Amino acid sequence: MSLRRIFAILGKDLREAMRDGRIMIVLLLPIALAIFYNSTTPEDNERPQTAVVVVDPDGLGVADSLRTAAERSVEIDMLSARDAQEARRIVDADDAAFAVIAPGADGDVPVQAEILLPENATPTAQSVVALVPDAVTAAAGREPVTDVQVQPLPVAASDRRPADLLEQRTILVVVCVMMLLSFVALLVVPMQTAEEIGSGTFGALRLAATGPEILAAKALSGLLYAAAGTVLTMFITGALPAEPVAFYAAALGLAISLIGFGLMLGLLSGNANQINTYGGFLILPIVGLATAVLIVESGVFAIVLDILPFSQGTRLLFDAVSEEQPFDAGPTAWLVLGAWTVIGFAILARVAARREA
Amino acid sequence: MTHPAVEVDGLEKHYGDVTALDGIAFSAAPGEVFGLLGHNGAGKSTTIRILTGRARPSAGRARVLGHDIPGGLEHVRHRINLVAETPTLYERATAKENLDLFCTLYGLPAARGDAALERVGLVHAAKRKVKTFSTGMRQRLMLARAVINEPRVLFLDEPTRGLDPKSARDLRELVRELSRGGTTIFLTTHDMTEADVLCDRVAFLAEGRIAALDTPRALKLRLGGAPEVDVVLDDGSDLVLGLDRPDDAERLHELVTSRRVRALHSREATLADVFIALAGRSLDDEAGE
């Protein structure tokens, strides 16, 4: 094997990829999806928001009291009005979900308050409405009628589903990374290989380089796309993994385990357009099976997922992205990836040898 | 001791039940222009594929520059090259980029690419993408790539197919130049005239076997049939007379002595005649099939 020849072919492959619109689309699509999901999916710890207008002429501090009462569940944008009429106008203009009119407290007379609540108030607004009596009472310096304590109950680790430990946004970004790796290994690499076969340039290269050198260059180009695409996706989305080294190692491990099959696909097909057209039928089930690890935890299907490279690779990615290591996949997953890498490249060597013969 | 540049002995190639080569044997000397002729599917391209290490023989021996192929391919890789039947170029790359890649693969300076482009008259198109090239330009670029490493053996697989007359003539001139420089040219072609003009020796391949192998002149004399003459008479009519037939010879003598002959042309056998004699059909028949 000559490194000079491998890197010469690698450089050519990278240049060709940049000039091939089909390959650029396949490479950029998962990154664009990750950016889209990342910007449109709310963070899991984001509280729902609502606006409330408060009339508090005596300055009892109803607004602060209500905000305190709701702070763990709802983020309130608090507005103030001079009187009930102004408050009504604000609610009618949809600038506030409802109004609280607290005319004041006077001695032992029960605290008086009025709530202006539109019929179409959102569930969030209605949940805040439920907090108003206690908030007004507290603002008036009275004791609450009831005292309810919340007792947090610990949940056993075994009862926690992996998906519960991951933010929705993180899940989507990791799935996009997994999609990118599948696209690279099973679409881009086979397309570039098939293009060489179909155009006869593979044969021309064979005069100046050995078959293994050509295939090694193509595998390396796939790894470069995978590494660059993963780094770019994580950087743009700001989804920083808890264990970066483990995350990028998992990404490369998954890519390597699939690239042998991708090269084989390219050698057998010899038609880049065919792969581009029908490759989706191969990729969609793979992405589906990889994502299934978040849902399936037991049964025959779980055993199937245990032996597939893309599902084990996805587990490793999730483990590395979250501090909680939701799957704790560890050495077993690496063993599965290693086994598929060996199988993939062994079959590739056989196919290449038969093709040569 | 000088090895033959190309040496094949008992070479066989089978694709399943199909026999592409059935024990062929020949050799080509250094600097020789050796032609391999035959119908489509006769085994010409398979022979080249084996000799360039891109296919493994089923049996027999193939040697190039004294090294067994494919085992010794690494020893001769930088001393052989090929112009394939159809252009095998990177369409999205420029002519220069195509050559630069192979310069790097062969460990040669990029200046070799410039020199090769100059040699085939493509300097003006060095920075143009290959997808904008005409068929002739592509073939010339293929030739530039093939001479970039100054090969000792150059394989040409139907190199003039689809070329305009000027490009074909330029290519033949380059072949002669390379041959004079000591490069062995191994040529497959459908064009019998081209083979006749270019080749020192030709081998006819039919159904995977060598049907005849000799110099074009010897083959024409041996297999081209009896000599004939075209006779144009003073009344404008013409006739063909076989010189090996006593009646025709007597008739010709009569016509000449009676001064009725206006023109007389000898009709020599061509390689196409040899081909028909050996294969039972012409290449034109194949084109029509």
On the 0 to 100 scale, the average pLDDT of chain A is 86
Give me the number of helical elements of chain A.
Answer: 14
**What fraction strand of chain A?**
5-15%
Radius of gyration of chain A: 30 Å
Describe this structure in words.
The complex is a heterodimer of chains A (about 350) and B (about 290). Chain A has a four-stranded mixed β-sheet, sandwiched between helices. In chain A, helix 7 (about 170-200) packs across helix 13 and helix 9 packs across helix 10. Chain A is α/β, with parallel strands linked by helices and about 350 residues long. Chain A has helices spanning about 5-20, 20-40, 60-70, 85-90, 125-130, 130-140, 170-200, 200-210, 210-235, 245-270, 270-290, 300-305, 310-320, 330-355, and strands at about 50-55, 75-80, 100-105, 110-115. Chain A is elongated, with a radius of gyration of 30 Å. The radius of gyration of chain B is 22 Å and the shape is globular. Helix content of chain B is about 35%, strand content about 25%. The N and C termini of chain B lie far apart (about 45 Å). Chain B is an alpha/beta fold and about 290 residues long. Chain B has helices spanning about 45-50, 75, 95-105, 110-120, 135-145, 165-180, 190-200, 215-225, 245-255, 270-280, 285-289; strands spanning about 5-15, 20-30, 35, 60-65, 65-70, 80-85, 155, 185-190, 200-205, 210-215, 230-235, 240, 260-265. In chain B, a hairpin with a 2-residue loop joins strand 1 (about 5-15) and strand 2 (about 20-30). The model of chain B has no long low-confidence stretch (mean pLDDT about 85). The longest helix of chain B is centred in the middle third of the chain and has 16 residues, at about 165-180. Chain B contains eleven helices and 13 strands.
